[in-house]
Specification:
The structure is a homodimer of 451-residue chains. With 451 residues, the first copy, chain A, is of the alpha/beta class. The first copy, chain A, has 16 helices and 13 strands. In chain A, helix 10 links the parallel strand 4 (212-219) and strand 5 (248-255). Chain A is globular, with a radius of gyration of 22 Å. The interface between A and B is medium-sized, with 28 and 28 residues.
Chain lengths: 451, 451
C-alpha cells in the first residue's frame, strides 16, 4: 500500500489550491503523476479540501490523456482505503467473484455463480444496479418476489459458509471515495474513461476479501467499450491492478454487439436463467456462462487446469446442481424459489407488441444498445440512479444474428405494463435489426483472454 | 446578436443538469455545439444555475477539443451581453484600441497609443494587469507617482475628447461572465485554450464602443502561444469575431522568444518608453511600436494606406508629438509627467546584481519566460491576482540575441529592493541566456499579418 502524503501541516488553502492546479495542468499536458500526487488529489477531494470544480477538470483531463497503470493503481488503493473492507477470512474456502462491465441481456452472473458454487468455490457476489441501457444483477434478483439483497455482513458470512454463494448490494461504507467520485463523473460527462472505470471496478472488488476474480469485459454496440482495443486496455489495466494487490485475476473480452440470449428485462431474464440452468437456454448464453464458471472454478483451485474446470462446469450444469444451488440461495435470501419453475409467479407484463421484419433475409445485426434503450424506455432500466424500475417489462428477441427471417415475420416482442412509450420503443427496436440478403460472417463470442 | 434561448419555463433543475451533461459529453466527443447551446451553458453558469463543477469539466473539454469560430462568437457575444457596454458614441473621431496577448518587456502600448493619438486617432485604451511572467500596462503606468487608472466613465469620455487618449482599467461591470469564467479557468488549469483566450479578449474589447482594433499576438517562449500555428489560429479567431461584430480588426503575429527592448519591470519600462518616444530606444521596440501605431492610424482612417500610415507614425515619433502626448495624458490622469525626463523621480531599486557570461561568444537565445519569471520572483510581477507588486524592481538586459559577449562580460543587471530571492532570480536569468560560438540566424520580429 502507498505511503500517504498529506500537505505540510499548516499549509494554506491557497497553497493547496495552487498545487492542485499544477497537477491538473500536468495531467492535461499528458504527464504522469506520482502515486503521492494521485493520493493527494483523491484524498483532498474526499475530505472536501479540493473543490468539485477542480476535481471535475482533473477528471476531464484524465478522459483526455488517460492514466498509466501506476497512476490507476494509486487511485484504486486510495479509493479502497477510503472505506470499510469486508473481511472474509472467517469464511472457509477459496473466494472468487465475477464481474461484468455491463451489457444488454447479460445474466451470466446468475448462471455462472451457482455452477461455480456447486463446484465448491465460494462466491461472495457483490453486485450493482443497472444504469442507462445496461442491466444490473441486483435488479434482476429483485424481480423475484421476496428476494432481499440487503444482507447484514453477518448474514452474508453465514450464507457463504453454508451455501458457498450469496448476493449482496454495494454498501455505502465500501469505497465512499469512489461513490463521491462517481457522482461527480456522472454529472460531468467523465464516466467514459478506461482508467476511471478500471479503478472504480477494482476498488470495489478489492474491498472484499477475495482470492480471485474473473472479469467479463464487454465490447461492442451494447457495451461501454465500443472498440476491442479499448476493451483490451481496460482488461489489462484491471488485471494489472489485481496482480499488484496479489489477487489471481483473469479477464475475458466478449462480444456485446447483440444482446446475450433472447431476453432483456428483469423478470424475463430470470426466466431465461432458469431455462439455461436446466440446459434449455440459448447457445451463446450457455456457452459464455460455462466459460466464466470454468474460469472461476480454475482460479478457485477447484480444478487443476482450465480444461478440467470446463468439464466440472459442464457436469454441474447437466446434473442440475447449479440449478439447485440457485434455488437454495433464493430461498435463503427470502425469495420464492418456485418462480424458477412457475414463471407466472414472477411479475408479468399486461401487454405485448410484436415487431415485424420489413423484408425477408438474414439478420445481420441486432444493435444491443438500441434494444437496451428500448427496454429502458418502457421501464426496465433507469435514467437516474434513484429512478424506480418495472421488473415485469422488457423485450424478447425472436431471432438473432445469422438467423433467417421472412418478410412480416416476428423479430421480437415487447412486453409492457403501460402503453406510454411503447411505440417509441418499437421504433428503436426496428432500428436495431438489420436484415440483409447474404448471411453475415460468424462472429466470435469470446474474443480474448487477458491474464 | 444571438436570440437567447433559456430553458423552458418550469423546467426542473434535474433536466437542466442532464442537458448540461449532454452538452459536456458532446464537446468531449469533439462535436460542434449550436450558438443556442453555448448561450445556454454560459448564461446558466453566470446565473449560478449550472454549477462550477460542470462548467470546469466543460472548459477542460474545450481545451481538449477546441471550438469553432461559430462557437467562439456565440461565447463572446454571451459574455459581452452579460455586462455593461461602454458607449463612446458621444466622443468624436474614429476609436481604435490596441491589445497585446501578453509578453515580457512589452511596453508597445505606451509608445504606439500616444503616437496614434498624436496622429488624430482616438484611443480608448482599456488595459489589464500583469499575471505570471507577463507584465500589464496598468502596472507600468502605476509606477508613475500619482497616476490614476480608475477614471469614471465621465472622466474617460472627457479626456478622450480632449487628448484623444486615456488609459483605464477593466471595470467589474464589463463582461462579468468573463470574470467569473476566468476565475474558474485560473483554478482549473484551463487558461491555455485558444478559443477561451480569443473570446475573453474579444468580449472585453467589444464591450467598448470601438471602430477598430489592432491585435498583437505574441508567439514564442515568453508568450502564452509557444507555436506560430497556435498564434495564427488565435489571431484568425479574434479577427473573425471582430468582423462578425462589424469592427475593423487586424492582428500582427510577433516574436516573443526574447524580451522586447532591454527593460523588464514596471518603472524600468517607463524609462525605456520615454527613451523610445524620444527616438533613442531599442531598435526592436521602436520598430514594433511604429508598426502597431501605423496599423492603428490606418484602421483609424487617419491615413489612406498602410504606407502613408507608416510615414505618419514615423513623423509623430520624430517630431516629439507622441512624447508630448504621453506627458499630457500622464498629467491629465494625475501623474507626475516629469518622470519621463527625470528617472530619479520614479520608484528606484536599492540594490543591483550583475549576471556575467560564462564564456565568450554570440548570444543565441534569451528565454523571455525565464527573464519574466526572474523579474516576477523579485517582486515585479504577481503570482495571484491580488498580490502586490514592487514597481521599482526588474531586469535590464545588456545584450540581446545576435550580439557578441566576452567571457565575464555583463549579460544583464537585476534591480531589487529586497535580497530575498535575488540569487534564485540570478540563476533563472543565467539559464535564460544561451551563448554559442556561431552567430545565430536573424529572426523576424513581425512574423505575419492576419486580417
Amino acid at each position: 500500500m502507498l505511503a500517504f502524503t498529506s500537505p505540510k501541516p499548516g499549509c494554506y488553502a491557497k497553497e493547496l489550491k495552487m498545487r492542485t492546479v499544477d497537477l491538473i495542468f500536468r495531467k492535461r499536458q499528458g504527464e504522469e503523476l506520482s502515486p503521492e500526487e494521485v493520493v493527494f488529489l483523491v484524498n483532498g477531494f474526499t475530505r472536501g479540501e479540493i473543490p468539485d470544480y477542480q476535481m471535475s477538470a482533473f477528471l476531464m483531463a484524465v478522459c483526455w490523456q488517460g492514466m498509466t497503470e501506476r497512476e490507476v493503481s494509486a487511485l484504486t488503493d486510495c479509493m479502497l482505503e477510503s472505506g470499510e473492507v469486508i473481511d472474509l477470512s472467517g469464511v472457509q474456502g477459496v473466494k472468487v467473484d465475477k464481474h461484468s462491465t455491463g451489457g444488454v441481456g447479460d445474466k451470466t452472473s446468475l448462471i455462472a455463480a451457482p455452477i461455480a458454487a456447486a463446484a465448491g468455490v465460494v462466491v461472495p457476489m457483490i453486485s450493482g444496479r443497472g444504469l442507462g441501457h445496461t442491466g444490473g444483477t441486483l435488479d434482476k434478483l429483485e424481480a423475484i418476489p421476496g428476494f432481499r439483497t440487503s444482507l447484514s455482513i453477518g448474514e452474508f458470512h453465514a450464507q457463504l459458509q453454508q451455501l458457498g454463494l450469496a448476493f449482496i448490494g454495494q454498501s455505502a461504507e465500501v469505497t465512499p471515495a469512489d461513490g463521491k467520485l462517481y457522482s461527480l463523473r456522472d454529472a460531468t460527462a467523465t464516466v467514459e474513461s478506461i482508467a476511471l472505470i478500471a479503478s472504480s471496478i477494482m476498488s470495489k472488488k478489492l474491498a472484499v476479501g477475495l482470492d480471485a476474480l474473473v472479469l467479463d469485459v464487454k465490447v461492442g454496440s451494447g457495451a461501454f467499450m465500443k472498440k476491442q482495443i479499448d476493451a483490451r486496455r481496460l482488461a489489462q489495466l484491471m488485471v494489472g491492478i489485481g496482480r499488484r494487490a496479489n489477487k489471481r485475476v483473469q479477464a475475458l473480452i466478449t462480444d456485446m454487439n447483440q444482446p446475450l440470449g433472447y431476453a432483456v428485462g428483469n423478470a424475463l431474464e430470470i426466466m431465461e436463467v432458469s431455462q439455461t440452468l436446466q440446459n434449455a437456454g440459448p447457445v451463446d448464453l450457455t456457452r459464455l456462462s460455462l466459460e466464466l464458471a470454468a474460469r472461476m472454478i480454475h482460479l478457485g483451485r477447484a480444478a487443476d487446469s482450465i480444461e478440467e474446470a470446463r468439464e466440472v462446469a459442464q457436469t454441474r450444469l447437466l446434473d442440475g446442481s447449479g440449478y439447485k444451488k440457485l434455488k437454495e440461495v433464493i430461498t435463503a435470501q427470502g425469495g420464492n424459489a418456485q418462480v424458477l419453475d412457475r414463471f407466472e409467479l414472477l411479475p408479468n407484463a399486461t401487454g405485448m407488441r410484436e415487431v415485424y421484419s420489413p423484408r425477408s433475409g438474414y439478420v445481420s445485426a441486432v444493435d444491443a444498445e438500441l434494444i437496451g434503450r428500448a427496454s429502458q424506455m418502457i421501464g426496465a432500466g433507469r435514467d437516474l440512479k434513484d429512478d424506480a424500475i418495472d421488473p415485469a417489462v422488457g423485450v424478447i428477441l425472436e431471432v438473432k444474428v445469422g438467423q433467417k427471417v421472412e418478410s412480416g415475420g416476428v423479430l421480437c416482442r415487447i412486453y409492457y405494463t403501460g402503453e406510454d412509450r411503447v411505440e417509441d420503443a418499437a421504433e428503436q427496436v426496428e432500428d436495431a435489426f438489420r436484415i440483409s440478403q447474404q448471411a453475415p460472417e460468424e462472429r466470435e463470442l469470446i474474443l480474448e483472454v487477458v491474464g
